[in-house]
Amino acid sequence: MSALTKPRNTPRRGPSLHSVSVFLKDGYSVFVGGLVALDGVDGYAVPGAKRTGLIAAGIYAPKSGSVLSGSASEAVADGATEIDLDCGLFDLDNGSSSDHCTIADVGALAYMLDDHTVSRLSSGASAAGRIVAVSADESAVTVQVGLPGGNLD
């Protein structure tokens, strides 16, 4: 799959555990419903992606009225835009047949492929959160996402 280009309706399972506010990194855009991570080098928010050094922070969920377009983007200095993230259990898309999560992966870590897709394979990727469930057709993976979210090691 490829990264989001528009807002996504990301189903939440149960109540929001909590919300956090983070600062967006210069030159990046995030979309409502997209997985947001912190860059482990400078701590600024970026869209979830397949790369090492990211820390899954939550799902972009702006407070009512804070973003009209469904996205936030940064074209000035790092940290000039503060965004709100929701933390909890969310249904993310499952990876391709070679790296997709199955019921056998429940309890293990899911790894980011992009800002809405996860995999069971860690190679070259950062953790998105713990796998809580996998849909019967294996199209969706329920993942516990967010900061602070406990120890993922």
Walk me through the topology.
Elements lengths: L17 E6 L5 E3 L3 E5 L5 E3 L6 E7 L10 E3 L8 E13 L14 E4 L4 E3 L7 E8 L5 E6 L8
Parallel strand pairs: 7-9
Antiparallel strand pairs: 1-7, 2-6, 3-4, 3-5, 5-7, 7-11, 8-9, 8-10, 10-11
What's the pLDDT, averaged over the residues? 87
Provide the succession of SSEs: EEEEEEEEEEE
State the helicity in percent bands. under 10%
Beta-strand percentage?
Answer: 35-45%
What best-fitting shape do the alpha-carbon axes yield?
A: globular
Can you count the beta strands?
A: 11
Return the structural class. mainly beta
Radius of gyration: 14 Å
Give the termini distance in whole angstroms: 26 Å
* Number of domains as seen in the coordinates: 1
What does this structure look like?
- This protein is 0% helix and 40% strand.
- By secondary structure, the chain is an all-beta fold.
- The protein has one domain.
- The strands form 2 sheets. The protein has a 5-stranded mixed β-barrel with strand order 7-9-8-10-11. Strands 2-6 form a two-stranded antiparallel sheet.
- The protein starts with 17 loop residues before the first strand and ends in an 8-residue tail after the last strand.
- The model is unreliable at 65-69 and 149-153 (pLDDT under 50).
